[in-house]
Amino acid sequence: MLEILRVYPTGLETRVCIEDPRVTRTGFRPDPYTETISLLAAVLLAIQVNAQDFIAWSGNDCDGSEGLEVACDGTCFDFSNRHSFEVLNAEGFVTLFEGADCTGESFDFGAETPGECINVNTGTNIQSFICT
What we know:
Structural class: mainly beta
Order of helices and strands: EEEEHEEEEEEEE
CATH class of the largest domain: Mainly Beta
Shape: elongated
Number of domains: 2
CATH topology of the largest domain: Gamma-B Crystallin, domain 1
Helix content: 10-25%
CATH architecture of the largest domain: Sandwich
Number of helices: 1
Largest sheet: 4 strands, antiparallel
Number of strands: 12
């Protein structure tokens, strides 16, 4: 049995026995829900910090009508009526698809440097893409 003695400035003493399964050498264990929430927050922060952004344009040189800024998280997005794109913040691997919903013939554009405008000239009409 381990006893922990805590003496307060007022002279009051408190003793804690470690027989209780909720008690560790450093005191009470954290609530499991608190641990879960902390872990979830850390994971979400890590995902957000590592997320790249992708943006597409209707023009050939990242000009014209600008599309939405989307995350490079492996989700399939629409690319219809777009002719160029840029990966923002970090390097992203881009795959373009001839069909909607990332189907049909695919074209790998490789790891693209952040901030570089890429003209999409595949000889076919690109409808969707995935960025990771």
